[in-house]
Amino acid sequence: MQKEKSTPMCISVDWLQVFTLCAPLDSQELYFGGRTYKLIVEDGQTPLFQRMLKVVCNGRKYATILQEPRNKVITARATMIKVENRVLYCEQFVQFLYDLMSAIGARYKGITRLDLCCDFNKLYGGRNVQRFIKSFVSGT
Predict the structure, then answer these.
(1) How many other C-beta atoms can be found within 10 angstroms of the C-beta atom of residue 98?
(2) Cβ–Cβ contacts within 10 Å for residue 42, how many?
(3) Judging by DSSP bridges, how do beta strands 78-83 and 107-120 pair with one another?
(4) Which of 62, 64, 66, 65 is nearest to 87 (CA)?
(5) CA 71: distance to chain centroid?
(6) Is residue 67 helix, strand or coil?
(7) Segment 110-127 mean pLDDT
(8) Short-list 40, 48, 113, CA closest to 74
């Protein structure tokens, strides 16, 4: 019996959001990892948080920070940090998150959302991608 060769694949983090405790933040410059980032207060809000900030470097967003929870049961220092998807595909995304938390004085409490994705160059058994998707969507 001939053993089938393994299918090349890549498992990546597709979404990362962490819960931290942090004092209220304002627009400012942050320097870490050899770069200068701008922390910018945005006009937007979410159903759970009243304050939104973005972390930008060279015109590109690296993270979103949410503060001021609407629910008063949650501590006022509650701060969510979501790392941008394209940053997650960089080798040093964990170091970026640690450095960002340190720069803003945030204390890590836990992960609130972690999505993983698995990319394949080939499907197992030589299956056809188009037929696989059609079969999946149609439920057959």
Answers:
(1) 14
(2) 12
(3) unpaired
(4) 62
(5) 23
(6) strand
(7) 84
(8) 48
